[in-house]
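Hi V.,

You were right to ask for the full record rather than a summary. Here it is.
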Amino acid sequence: MIASAPISVQTGFLNGLSEQALLGLPYLFEFWAMEHQLPPPGDWRSWVIMGGRGAGKTRAGAEWVRAQVEGNMPLDPGRCSRVALIGETQDQVREVMIFGDSGILACCPPDRKPVWEAGRKRLVWPNGATAQVFSAHEPEGLRGPQFDAAWVDELAKWKKGQETWDMLQFALRLGDDPRSCVTTTPRNVAVLKGILGNPSTVMTHAPTSANRANLARSFLEEVVARYHDTRLGRQELEGQLLEDAEGALWNMRALEACRVAEEPVTSRIVVAVDPPVTGGKASDDCGIVVVGAVMDGPPNQWRAIVLEDASVSASSPNAWATAAVAAAHRWGADRMVAEVNQGGDLVEAVVRQVDPLIAYKSVHATRGKVARAEPVAALYEQGRVSHLPGLGALEEQMCQMTTAGFDGAGSPDRVDALVWALHDLILAPSVARMAPKVRTLR
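Predicted structure:
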């Protein structure tokens, strides 16, 4: 390779190029690209570029879009003419995929650079090709438009990943061979695993260190020293898709097996709340989970169904209390259950400011999170808990809950709320039934 050759060989190579070739060399991505940044050969529909942070995924996605829309000359048509650009938010599409250091505009040569039409949220190339911006928060935005290519960025962190991906598949219907490029750091989410398991998907992979030449040495040294040989490091630096945490109380395969399509007739519904310790941007999410119980037979035969994960990133107590009360009203819940270890009576006071008449119960943790979660995990093993679709964020947290503690970042707020709900609905009645009766002598 030229990059590994002696300086004299490199100089000779460059001196042998024409002026036009020298001007075009920076934009010949096939010359500069690493192997994982180039699309694999063959008849595929989705190409997943999975790698660690800074592995060059964004550059690969931007260059792939270029390769689809550009022709031999600036005004010549390319293979594709209508592209969808999808990120978690429209702002992220604009700032990372389009205007970012490795985004589309930074990669395009001057005579082929597209124009950004902010009002229409799209790029327009000199040859007429367009790329439209979409947010994964609004899957329905993909209902109606049609495309012959799509670049999907950081799909594994989308909260509505499956819904957005499904809508995109219906929209990729133009041309002879519509394709998509997915650039993402891996996370243990069902939508990504489903895509990787599809026979029409190909995947390339690289760790962060593969792109060390373009990363600050201090960054690489720091993150390797801090996260080497940790689960987070294997995911974020090595780009590995980690199925299950060691000693996990739940695994994704079992959770997928307990999903049901429709809500059964429930006897009782509770909304459980795990309030954040602090407010503001630095606080954890507020876990809000809605669970129903089917109370057929004695309590040790009751079953539960998780109906909704209504957790929110709330900047104030009033915001999460409003979300929790709204969830209770939405499902006609019989009671709200809230942990008060940190907030005490203030938690109830905040909730009652939103709805003074709501049925409310405070719960206080006397055991650690793992000790509380293990009996709930046993209910799943017994097949007594099922899930409605759309609980991806909750299920991801559940798979990070291990016998040694929570293996994820921050607090397992969603899991905590789930545990409180199932304790109130299923476990507490069973314990009460088994308690010895005290006989009064007359």
